[in-house]
Specification:
alpha+beta, Nuclear Transport Factor 2, Chain: A, four-stranded antiparallel β-sheet, 5 helices
């Protein structure tokens, strides 16, 4: 068994005309799982009389620290592509998110022990929505 076969945990493929998309879950040497998305496209580099087919491949690697950001961006993109959200609304949401992120970065300042204690207690009381795994979010999209 080759090294690449050992690190493959799961694979799903999608055939789309002359293209095949592979969604692979792989495991690194240190045991972390990551996702490899490969687009494989069949191309004729020969002539009509003597066809010679090759596969052009493009790979994208997603690491666990980026799963949520990737799913969020993909979800928003699919919403616009499907017509569920207008381009103007999507751009406005992006601008709001950037502004909120910049404000949050500016607001971070050292706090006293009492303020930190109260802030910690308030944060614990917040009802946080249930976190979904990357694959659950992808399933929800499709």
């Amino acid at each position: 068994m080759s090294e690449t076969e050992k690190d493959l945990v799961f694979s799903e493929s999608v055939k789309a005309g002359k293209r095949i998309y592979y969604f692979d879950v792989k495991q690194s040497r240190n045991g972390d799982k990551y996702i490899a998305i490969t687009e494989s496209k069949k191309i004729n580099e020969g002539t009509m009389e003597n066809p010679r087919f090759v596969f052009e491949k493009h790979k994208l690697f997603l690491y666990k620290e980026d799963y949520e950001k990737f799913v969020d961006a993909l979800t928003k993109t699919l919403d616009v592509a499907k017509g569920n959200v207008s381009v103007a609304d999507a751009l406005a949401a992006q601008a709001e998110a950037r502004a909120a992120s910049e404000m949050a970065a500016e607001a971070v300042a050292p706090v006293s022990g009492v303020e930190a204690s109260v802030a910690g207690e308030l944060a614990e009381d917040d009802d946080k929505p249930e976190k979904k795994s990357f694959l659950d979010k992808v399933k929800d999209i499709f």
